[in-house]
Amino acid sequence: MAKKAKQTAGGTPATVALTTAGVPYTVHSYDHDPAHPSYGEEAAEAMGVAPERVFKTLVAEVDGGLTVAVVPVAGSLDLKALAAAVGGKKAAMADPAAAERTTGYVRGGISPLGQRKRLPTVLDASASAHATICVSAGRRGLEVELSPQDLARLTGAVLAPIGRA
What we know:
This protein is an alpha+beta fold and 165 residues long. It is built from 5 helices and 10 strands; from the N terminus they run αβαβββαβαβββαββ. It is globular and about 40 Å long. The protein starts with 12 loop residues before the first helix and ends with a strand.
């Protein structure tokens, strides 16, 4: 994995956060197709990476507060498991406008890194089975590959089984 030595003009808050923290990562970019039905599946296909290693960032509301869930694009989010992972009772997907406003990113480009407001984060436990995983780098068509341990450390994430195949 290459470490990005210098922040470029095309950087995002996510890549700035990684560079500032001195974390090794690799950026993958591809041409985003607005007609593709799934941002995450599109990323996996475009990069030629197994969908189990590409993770989507979802924002949910747990007991009235926003929480970030990072799960493989090959599956879906188990809302009950997410609520339990953060000590909550009930979870539902957040309003997209609230997710965008709070994170500072657009839907389909929400990164777990470099968010405008740091939210509680849960990373699906399956991430630990991989040396590296890919998550959004902060815009559609841009992914960042890093170790799941670094991602968890930088986001303060809890690892829990929150994904469903």
